[in-house]
Amino acid sequence: MRTRSKQSGLTLPELIVVIATIALLVGFGLPAIRALMNSFETQSGAKTLISTALASARAIAAKEQHYAGVRFQQDSAGNQYMIFIVQDPSIMAYGFRAVEGVKPIKLPDKVSVTDLTILIARNLRNPVNPTEVRLDDEKNNLNDAQKDALIDEFREVTDITTFSIIFSPSGKLVVHGIRVRNRNGRTDDSSNDDIFNTKNNVDAGIGMFYQDDYFSAAWPDLSLGPEPSRNSFVIIYEKDKFQQARGMGRAWSDYLAQIAPHRIYINPYTGTIILPD
């Protein structure tokens, strides 16, 4: 006696119904996705995004049992990211690299984050101890407004928008010397690190961010070198005005004076951000 073999799969009408259902779900979901992304453009949304990154960095520090944190830095196109970094003693005493397997998080286009700290005479920094900054005495005697007036070039904007926030293995916020490098710790162009790399490699599309090797007088336009981590920052929600004010003399200093009181500090024990009054 012959038996009929059963056929599995969907008929054409059933397949059309499935495709139509998926299309409807995607259509309904897109507005929600857009609303979620737009929420990060707001003040509360940006703070939530940064706060989540800081909490993740604390968890990485505890898991790896090394100092770890979040690095704020622009790519070569001027987009600012949050990069998760971890100390790697095999690179150098203050050497940090990107955490493997964790992608950088791009900040919303309308938002920029700054530590509002310009390190004058970066080329005089002690390369052995990055926490020691030997400032030019004449420039070091300038008041805050005069120092703000110095931030009128690309390298100074790079300086104040490139900084790190670091946690100890116990989860405590610390001020620690920072120098980011590729995962191989190399200063030549032989690393294929896709996050931090040499200027030549990043310019060639190998890597996203310049590593901290360009702070001498030979690299006046980059201003990227070893420096201590921070315990506070300022979120700029009008990035277009921030860019427009640059290089406008007193207007630039006035703009910095306006946003300085809105500095956000980080609780050293919990890692949560403390909102200004």
Topology:
Elements: H1 12-39, H2 43-64, E1 68-74, E2 80-87, E3 95-98, E4 105-106, E5 112-114, H3 137-140, H4 144-149, H5 154-160, E6 163-167, E7 173-174, E8 177-180, E9 196-197, H6 199-203, E10 209-210, E11 227-228, E12 232-236, H7 239-245, H8 250-259, E13 264-266, E14 273-274
Describe this structure in words.
With 277 residues, the protein is an alpha+beta fold. It has one domain (66-274). It contains 8 helices and 14 strands. It has helices spanning 12-39, 43-64, 137-140, 144-149, 154-160, 199-203, 239-245, 250-259; strands at residues 68-74, 80-87, 95-98, 105-106, 112-114, 163-167, 173-174, 177-180, 196-197, 209-210, 227-228, 232-236, 264-266, 273-274. Strands 1, 2, 3, 4, 6, 7, 8 and 11 form an 8-stranded mixed β-sheet that branches. The longest helix is centred in the first third of the chain and has 28 residues, at 12-39. It starts with 11 loop residues before the first helix and ends with a strand.
Low-confidence stretches: 32-40, 120-138
Please give the count of helices. 8
Shape, principal axes of CA atoms: globular
Number of strands: 14
Structural class: alpha+beta
Strand content: 15-25%
End-to-end separation? 86 Å
Kindly give the count of domains. Answer: 1
Largest β sheet strand count, sense and barrel closure: 8 strands, mixed
H/E order of the elements?
A: HHEEEEEHHHEEEEHEEEHHEE
Rg from Cα:
23 Å
Could you tell me the mean pLDDT?
A: 76
Secondary structure: helix percent: 25-40%
